[in-house]
Write a structure and sequence with these properties.
- The chain is an alpha/beta fold.
- The protein folds into two domains: 2-122, Rossmann fold (3-Layer(aba) Sandwich); 125-216, Orthogonal Bundle (Arc Repressor Mutant, subunit A).
- It is built from eight helices and twelve strands.
- A five-stranded parallel beta sheet has the order 2-1-3-4-5, sandwiched between helices. It has a four-stranded antiparallel beta sheet with strand order 6-7-8-9, covered by helices on one side.
- A hairpin with a 4-residue loop joins strand 7 and strand 8 (140-143).
- Helix 2 (33-40) runs parallel beside helix 3 and helix 6 (152-163) crosses helix 8 (189-201).
- The longest helix has 19 residues, at 105-123.
- It starts with a strand and ends with a strand.
- The modification 4-aspartylphosphate is found at residue 51.
- Keywords: Cytoplasm, DNA-binding, Phosphoprotein, Transcription, Transcription regulation, Two-component regulatory system.
């Protein structure tokens, strides 16, 4: 899952980005309204965390533009504006949830999980490939009915592969799915994740296409 945080307070942004990355999300950070517009134009995000009081362009304007352009990712407004009419404006503009500052980071994470469960449930609840099964909503993966003890990045890697099991993923594509902007990614990081995932799901489940990348094994 890829998130976008739109927040001009560096301390809050650092806390949220660090927490979400440790939870296994790829998360990008935009520090003002204009940067948010440019980021959202790419249409690559599964959920947006949006402050309202932003430099260069107000958060409500950013949200209105995003929804008018057809953006459908859930949006959680996180703001210090506590007036009822501000909350109504945000919800009417297309926000899905509203959280007041200062907020508890665990509560924010719970709201993110709830909205992502709702969204993935509307798309495709469970992915299966042979004996492998992955449920994004419950964040559970199994093989032959046995739960797999995957850490967040292993789960994200398996999800990327199982969503498009016939596709060969190049290393930069997998880095983009697993990591946010500015995260340091070692030259062999993806190889390490693939090796670790193979140990848990079976070495034959992931094929290496030499000189290209990785894909799940062919069935049948």
């Amino acid at each position: 899952m890829r998130l976008l945080l739109v927040e001009d307070d560096d301390m809050i942004a650092e806390t949220v980005v660090d927490f979400m990355r440790r939870a296994g999300y790829a998360i990008d950070h935009a520090a003002d309204g204009r940067a948010a517009d440019l980021s959202l134009a790419n249409d690559v995000y599964d959920l947006v965390l949006l402050d309202l009081g932003l430099p260069k362009r107000d958060g409500i304007e950013v949200l209105n533009t995003y929804r008018r352009a057809g953006g459908v990712a859930p949006v959680i407004i996180i703001t210090a504006r506590d007036a009822v009419d501000e909350r109504i404006r945000g919800l009417d503009a297309g926000a899905d949830d509203y959280l007041m500052k200062p907020f508890d980071i665990d509560e924010l994470a719970a709201r993110v999980r709830a909205l992502l469960r709702r969204r993935t449930g509307q798309k495709q609840p469970v992915y299966t490939h042979g004996e492998l099964s992955l449920d994004p909503a419950s964040h559970e993966a199994t093989k032959a009915g046995v739960a797999l003890p995957l850490v967040p990045r292993e789960f994200a890697l398996l999800q990327a592969l199982i969503e498009e099991p016939t596709r060969v993923f190049r290393r930069p594509e997998l880095e983009e799915k697993l990591y946010g902007w500015g995260e340091e990614v070692g030259s062999n990081t993806i190889e390490v994740h693939v090796h670790s995932l193979r140990k848990k799901i079976g070495t034959d489940e992931i094929m290496t296409i030499r000189g290209v990348g990785y894909r799940l094994k062919r069935l049948g």
